[in-house]
Write a structure and sequence with these properties.
Helix content is about 30%, strand content about 35%. By secondary structure, it is α/β, with parallel strands linked by helices. It is globular, with a radius of gyration of 16 Å.
Length: about 220
């Protein structure tokens, strides 16, 4: 078996350290003993993009906010289906992840960060949401393992009633808030409804071939 190689480490602002491992062509990002991302399991992150874009069909020059970059699965999937008039702002809080994207994971990145439609902002996506009154047609959140806030306790505010109200304000009427999670969370489902979103909960497989663990994506439409 090919041994696993530690490629790099990256500090998470506010505490914690991410580690990037490589085994052959596969990459894994780990926090402590928790595997956050694996290049073999891209299906649900891709679905986050494609299913959101389906809900934006017919919109002229849509502007999407993606937080965060991760391994770029969501960004690449969005670019593959969006037109030339679209704009995608990517918020990534951890500078090391951007360095990995342009370094040891450059083949996986496949140039998506250099697409003319993309603006990369190295900042907390929560700050962009708070500043963006009616700015976005869609906000796609995959900054943690879900509403539990595993990576940073500060991520909890994205999924709180206050965070959902901020996302509502940052969306255009009819805009979509899409939230990825490693598993179900009935309390979060209720919060989205209480925040005024018309909400759908979709179960998707982790792998692109329809296999692997079941993940959850919530889609909330601003009415």
């Amino acid at each position: 078996m090919t041994p696993r190689e530690l490629v790099g480490m990256a500090a998470v602002p506010g505490g914690g350290e991410l580690k990037l491992f490589r085994r052959g062509v596969d990459h894994t990002i780990v926090l402590d003993r928790n595997e956050l991302m694996n290049s073999r399991m891209s299906g649900s992150e891709e679905a986050l993009a494609t299913m959101t874009c389906e809900r934006l069909a017919g919109r002229v020059a849509p502007h999407l906010l993606i937080g965060g970059y991760g391994m770029g699965f969501t960004l690449r999937a969005a670019l593959a289906v969006l037109g030339a008039d679209a704009r995608v702002t990517v918020a990534e809080l951890v500078p090391g992840i951007v360095e990995w994207a342009r370094g040891p994971m450059a083949d996986l990145t496949a140039g998506c960060l250099d697409d003319a439609r993309v603006t990369l902002v190295e900042d907390d996506v929560a700050a962009l949401i708070r500043a963006g009154r009616g700015a976005y047609d869609a906000i796609l959140l995959d900054v943690d393992n879900g509403p539990d806030g595993l990576t940073r306790a500060g991520n909890d505010r994205l999924y709180s009633a206050t965070g959902l109200a901020a996302a509502w304000g940052a969306l255009k009427v009819g805009g979509v808030l899409a939230v990825w999670s490693a598993g179900p969370d009935p309390r979060f489902s209720r919060r989205m409804g209480e925040a005024g979103f018309a909400t759908q909960e979709e179960v998707v497989r982790a792998r692109s071939n329809g296999k692997g663990p079941r993940h959850v994506i919530w889609f909330g439409v601003r009415r």
